């Protein structure tokens, strides 16, 4: 049973928390490295080589995540805080085309983005940066 973003069951709760850490400490670092390379290092002679290495790291992680997810809707049964964090991290790749090779991850991200609570949270977060209050 889940009464929020963390399951009531201790084992399920621990797995959801583990997925949150996986999103932020396993998936996100190479994605941020790619962003740094793309925005700040593009004019360097070694940029293309670095980008291939970083994207290789990302692909390894995406392959593992895709294999784990399989045809399931969420990482560990019901939607949890682990999914919320993972979707948020994977959104950083949305315009890169890197998710195209992992259709189950693309649909996973789309499912997460479509959740009304996700939309509200994203709008509230965006409002902090734009200074405009979310509508709706």
What's the alpha carbon Rg, rounded to whole Å? 16 Å
Q: Count the beta strands.
A: 0
Order of helices and strands: HHHHH
Helix content: 55-70%
Largest sheet: none
User: pLDDT under 50 segments (min length 5)?
Assistant: none
Instruction: Give the helix/strand class.
Output: mainly alpha
Mean model confidence by pLDDT? 91
Shape: globular
End-to-end separation in angstroms reads 30 Å
Helix run count: 5
Strand percent estimate: under 5%
Features:
0% strand; 5 helices
Descriptive report:
It is a single chain. This protein is mostly helical and 136 residues long. Helix content is 67%, strand content 0%. It is built from five helices and no strands. It starts with 9 loop residues before the first helix and ends in a 6-residue tail after the last helix. 22% of the residues are buried.
């Amino acid at each position: 049973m889940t009464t929020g973003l963390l399951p009531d069951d201790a084992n399920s709760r621990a797995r959801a928390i583990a997925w949150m850490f996986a999103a932020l400490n396993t998936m996100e670092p190479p994605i941020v490295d790619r962003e740094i390379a793309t925005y700040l290092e593009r004019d360097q002679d070694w940029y293309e080589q670095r980008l291939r290495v970083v994207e290789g790291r990302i692909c390894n992680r995406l392959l593992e995540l895709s294999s784990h997810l399989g045809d399931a809707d969420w990482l560990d049964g019901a939607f949890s805080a682990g999914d919320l964090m993972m979707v948020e991290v994977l959104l950083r790749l949305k315009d890169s085309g890197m998710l195209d090779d992992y259709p189950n991850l693309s649909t996973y991200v789309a499912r997460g983005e479509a959740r009304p609570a996700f939309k509200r949270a994203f709008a509230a977060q965006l409002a902090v940066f734009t200074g405009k209050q979310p509508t709706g």
